[in-house]
């Protein structure tokens, strides 16, 4: 019967007037599954299917791991962006605080009653500003007397000192600040050096 179908598929086309005919090839039949009684062929096909399954499973695991890594990286980037979003704001705000602190450092003994009220206002303003900075995890670095730390301090000069050991901070010219334990601005310091 299959010979009949193949013969029907091989059709003759042609031009009746010119007498030429062309033969159209028959469509290929799909490959038949191996015979059930051929165990070697079945075993080979099973092994091939298992190999494909293992390869596809490995690909799926790799894609899932890459997606998870991408998700984690995105979460970390977003957390870092949120954590340090205030950096520019804080950097701009610190000089204002420095000016207030310098105003407060004026010798009060020589000031009159009017200036005393001004100093009280400056003190309150500084306290308020410090509490705002603290809310946003901005902490001051005030290393007076501490060992010089180049990661957090910037030496402005070195002086000989009998009271402070070498490589320790003698004077803090300007406080430094940290934002979430990351350096926002180093402390400007004068460092003690050993006597020559």
> In whole angstroms, how far apart are the ends?
114 Å
The total domain count is 2
**Low-confidence parts:** 1-14
**Radius of gyration of CA atoms, rounded to a whole number:** 42 Å
Helix and strand element order: HEEHHHEEEEEE
Strand content: 15-25%
Describe the structure in brief:
It is built from 4 helices and 8 strands. By secondary structure, the protein is α+β, with helices and mostly antiparallel strands. Pfam families: GrpE (PF01025).
Notable characteristics:
single chain, 196 residues, alpha+beta, Nucleotide Exchange Factor Grpe, Chain A, domain 2, 2 domains, 3-stranded mixed sheet, 4 helices, 8 strands, 48% helix, elongated, disordered N terminus
3D architecture notes:
InterPro entries: GrpE, GrpE_CC, GrpE_head. It is found in: Cytoplasm. Belongs to the GrpE family. It holds the Pfam family GrpE. This is Protein GrpE. The structure is a single chain. By secondary structure, the chain is α+β, with helices and mostly antiparallel strands. The chain folds into 2 domains: 45 residues; 107 residues, Nucleotide Exchange Factor Grpe, Chain A, domain 2. Helix content is 48%, strand content 21%. Strands 3-6-7 form a 3-stranded antiparallel beta sheet. A hairpin with a 4-residue loop joins strand 1 and strand 2. The N and C termini lie far apart (114 Å).
């Amino acid at each position: 019967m299959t010979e009949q179908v193949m013969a029907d598929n091989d059709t003759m086309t042609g031009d009746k007037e010119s007498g030429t005919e062309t033969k159209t090839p028959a469509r290929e039949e799909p490959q038949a599954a191996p015979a059930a009684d051929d165990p070697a062929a079945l075993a080979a096909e099973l092994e091939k299917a298992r190999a494909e399954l293992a390869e596809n499973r490995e690909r799926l695991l790799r894609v899932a791991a890459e997606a998870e890594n991408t998700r984690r990286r995105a979460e970390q980037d977003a957390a870092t962006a949120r954590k340090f979003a205030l950096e520019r704001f804080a950097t701009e705000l610190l000089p204002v605080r420095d000016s207030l602190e310098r105003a407060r450092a004026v010798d009060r003994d020589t000031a009159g009653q009017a200036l005393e009220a001004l100093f009280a206002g400056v003190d309150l303003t500084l306290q308020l500003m410090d509490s705002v900075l603290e809310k946003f995890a901005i902490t001051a670095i005030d290393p007076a007397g501490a060992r010089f730390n180049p990661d957090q301090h910037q030496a402005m000069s070195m002086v000989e000192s009998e009271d402070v050991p070498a490589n320790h901070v003698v004077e803090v010219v300007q406080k430094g600040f940290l934002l979430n334990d990351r350096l926002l601005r180093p402390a400007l310091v004068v460092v003690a050096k050993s006597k020559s």
